[in-house]
Amino acid sequence: MTISINDAFDSGNIEVIDASDPQDIRLNIRTDNNSDFYQWFHFRVAGAKGVPLRLVIENAGTAAYPDGWTDYHACMSEDRDDWVRVPTRYEKGRLVIEHTPGLDSVHYAYFAPYTMERHRDLIADALSHDGVSLDVLGQTLDGRDMDCLTIGEGDKTIWVIARQHPGESMAEWWMEGFLARLTDPEDKVAQDIRRKARFRIVPNMNPDGSFRGHLRTNAVGSNLNREWDTPTADKSPEVLVVRNAMDADRPGLCLDVHGDEALPYNFIAGAEGIPGYTDKQAADLKAFLDAYLEASADFQTKVGYPLTAPGKANLSICTNALAARFDCLAMTLEMPFKDNANAPDRMRGWDGNRSAQLGSDTLDAMAAVIDRL
Description:
The chain is α+β, with helices and mostly antiparallel strands. The protein has two domains: 4-109, Immunoglobulin-like (Sandwich), CATH 2.60.40.3120; 116-372, Aminopeptidase (3-Layer(aba) Sandwich). It contains eight helices and 17 strands. The chain has helices spanning 116-127, 170-182, 188-196, 207-212, 237-248, 279-295, 318-326, 352-369, and strands spanning 4-6, 15-18, 25-28, 42-46, 53-57, 75-77, 84-85, 88-91, 94-99, 105-109, 132-139, 145-151, 156-162, 197-202, 253-260, 267-269, 329-336. The strands form three sheets. The chain has a seven-stranded mixed sheet with strand order 11-12-14-13-15-17-16, with helices on both faces. Strands 1-4-10-6-7 form a five-stranded antiparallel sheet, with no helix packed on it. A hairpin with a 5-residue loop joins β11 and β12. α2 (170-182) crosses α8 (352-369), α3 (188-196) packs across α8 and α6 crosses α8. The longest helix has 18 residues, at 352-369.
């Protein structure tokens, strides 16, 4: 019996230390290029059908967010479509995954991957609908296109971006559900909001990091969500081309979609700490949150990030930068890597399908505030 472990594919990330003993397979996660960040993993195990495996990620304790391993369960798929959770424990700085494959090829990942191949399918599907167009805003450092979809004919502009941090793959699953509903010709909410607004949508802000299997950075190790004050062509062209497009088509609302390693909840972070935060921005945010609570059983407002003190916001972060630059309603949506503690699913945890449903539900919240923008 020869067991093969490989990550040489779109979004793959693992280093094999020793795979000679199926009950003591020792692994490490690779760091992002030119960066200390790491936590995302995705690899295939071949030739282990019916063999009890004990996979030990030895450097888990020094990952970017070690608190993310508490109560975490790894994702597994035998068909690369249906992802379920498998027994996982964090002990003495190591992440231990125990599972017996039912087939000779099985994939393990930090979260259900959203590959660049699926991204291209997402773009193609969106463009099959009437009234959808594509702009390539520029290229990444590895030469990949920065895709931006335009949908709707209204006089208000809504920007929606996702996956600045490539390991937060739930953000592009969210996009799949959001786009499916927005382009649905029979959906009355979608019809109405397309008449009132023009959507500019960047489903993947970090194609290079996504393909390379990074957690948080682009090809040269830049954390894109710390580049919005001074983006540059050599460090953060992804942010530069999107922000330039926003300057030409100013947002009345911008939603930046992410995932959070530690908190098992869906929540919104606003821009309350920016200098000059206005009463209107606060009222618009409250209206959006109230509508989102009504629209989605998976959304909540009781648990989230602490509010930043007035005037102390980090203006290199997208939501803060855009709220200050455009005096708009800017927000960050966070989803869990683990599960929604308010509605747990022991088999799948929080997954791509639930992320997509949350994306679909978001349209109701946007519709509730569109006339305020």
